[in-house]
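Most newcomers find our protein records easier to grasp once they have seen one. Each record describes a single protein and holds just a pair of labelled lines. A learned vocabulary of local backbone shapes supplies the integers on the structure line. Nothing more is needed to start thinking about how sequence determines fold. The record below serves as our worked example for the rest of this section.
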Amino acid sequence: MGKVIVKIKLTNLKDTFLKAAGARKAKPRTVEVEALVDTGATRLYLKPSVIKRLGLARTDTVRSQTTNGEAIRYKYEPVQLELMGRRENFDVIELPETVPNLLGQVPLEVLDLVVDSKTQRLIPNPAHHGEQMTEEY
């Protein structure tokens, strides 16, 4: 497949809700970071430094199968992920700081994006003619 790196915009979802309800005056915390597209990973995985900049609170732990065996990871409040004009909300799983932020298969499916292995980039799903679509088979 090659190495596909994308720039993603992340917004603290709780901040967005509080701002809309009038309970927060400041703009929602937002960051733009690079993420490695990893179709072997499941979810949205972020470094602790990114999680801290977004001000996310830990909500749970999850078991994760890694190349180094099983690991316990921390799960954090959801963020709004924006990529290629598409956006959706996803819980965040913390990775070690030494690992790149990872964009896994579930966010790709929901955003209806696929890896074009020929050009080594992310593209809208050609089966849906460039339009974001969900499937209900």
